Amino acid sequence: DIQLTQSPSFLSASVGDRVTITCRASQGISSYLAWYQQKPGKAPKFLIYTASTLQSGVPSRFSGSGSGTEFTLTISSLQPEDFATYYCQQLDSYPLVFGQGTRLEIK
Amino acid sequence: QVQLVQSGAEVKKPGASVKVSCKASGYTFTSYYMHWVRQAPGQGLEWMGVINPSDGGTNYAQNLQGRFTMTRDTSTSTVYMELSSLRSEDTAMYYCARDLTSGAAAGTADWGQGTLVIVSS
Lengths: 107, 121
Fold this sequence. Notes:
The structure holds two protein chains of two kinds. Chain A has strands at 4-7, 10-13, 19-25, 33-38, 45-49, 53-54, 62-67, 70-75, 85-90, 102-106. Chain A is mainly β. In chain A, strand 4 and strand 5 form a beta hairpin. Chain A is globular and about 35 Å long. Chain B has strands spanning 3-6, 10-12, 18-25, 34-39, 46-51, 58-60, 68-73, 78-83, 92-99, 108-111, 115-119. In chain B, strands 2, 4, 5, 6, 9, 10 and 11 form a seven-stranded mixed β-sheet that branches. A four-stranded antiparallel β-sheet of chain B has the order 1-3-8-7, with no helix packed on it.
């Protein structure tokens, strides 16, 4: 099975900061990667698919990049509503595992 | 618009089974795969499995094989998940989630509201 490792697991940042979260796959997955945002008590929200395609309605400050085994999610200028937990998920082969999550908190 | 409405919370004893439903509307039910994802309290997301509503074909996470079953009823546009031999570690929020596209998997853009399953003696 493919494993995904996110780093960091915890990130403290301020409004206006640029932040980057990394997701590494244990083997190549081409561009079959998605990113989600989850706030406490809510279902995950779909942000990005095929590594870099922004889902409709997602603010342009979010961007994704990468292919193969290394991927990044970047938020160009953090807004108060962006403080949440972020997960990557590989869609290359079953099981469609998630990364362990990155918790983004306000500094 | 796409809506996924799940059944209500459940409290079960260890060893029992639970069946959770997810009723879909707002799109052609048989055209999009449906997934189940769970999240234990304070933990991350765990992909459980997927069903093709068109032909009922499934793929499950290895650690759930033998205890987990996904089915669908095309007449009511409903997907079900059943988990048997429940243990305390199965206490979690369970979500159904629909594929973004009707072709290759790209992620799940639409999610149900979640169903809390508590396993306790």
